[in-house]
Amino acid sequence: MSEYGYIRVSSTDQNEDRQRLAMKERAVPEKNIYADKQSGKDFDRPQYKRLVKRLRPGDLVYVLSIDRLGRNYEEIQRQWRMLTKEIGADICVIDIPLLDTRNGKDLMGTFIADLVLQILSFVAQSERENIKKRQAQGIAAAKARGVKFGRPEAPVPENFAAIVAAWERGKLPLSDAVRQCRVSEATFYRRLRELRSAQRK
Fold first, then answer.
1. What is the pLDDT of residues 13-35, one digit of tens each?
2. Is the pLDDT of residue 185 over 90?
3. Residue 82 contacts by C-beta under 8 Å, 6 or more apart in sequence?
4. Per annotation, catalytic residue among 10, 121, 175, 197
5. Are 51 and 4 in contact (CB under 8 A)?
6. Which residue from 2, 57, 95, 172 could staple onto 166, CB 3.0 to 4.6 Å apart?
7. Active-site residue 10, yes or no?
């Protein structure tokens, strides 16, 4: 039997030290720890996939908390069944002692573990959806206050009309016109439409 640890943080700037410490306390070999820096919305994660390929019947996987495994209710359920039933590995969720498939292999133990898993995976997805909702509300409120998101657009050069005229007469290639304006081709055409609209007024 081999012991493995799975770690996940949602972005590259998040700290995984707490999860690594938990694996170290359980003497999981460093070479058997797999870490993804990716959202928990699905299981399309490279290190998780590598871990699954290595698992054999009787192996044990540690994960600090259920939301580190994932935040999608149905996917957590599916992966849990695949790891424990199809592969035959055990899972230990460190923060929730009831979610340790090494214990309670009888019918009642399995029922309790399944029930707790369903509740916690539901909570994990609900929290993910609440985070997205709060982010959307925060962005909407910021926009209402006039906050601009993204990089500010480059100003239209003073000689934009002259550059456009030269391009339209065929004296200036589009690539040179775009370069002189220091914008993308799409922005060049949008600015051109704005210029023509202003000229018609």
1. 678 899 999 999 999 999 999 99
2. no
3. 52
4. 10
5. yes
6. 172
7. yes
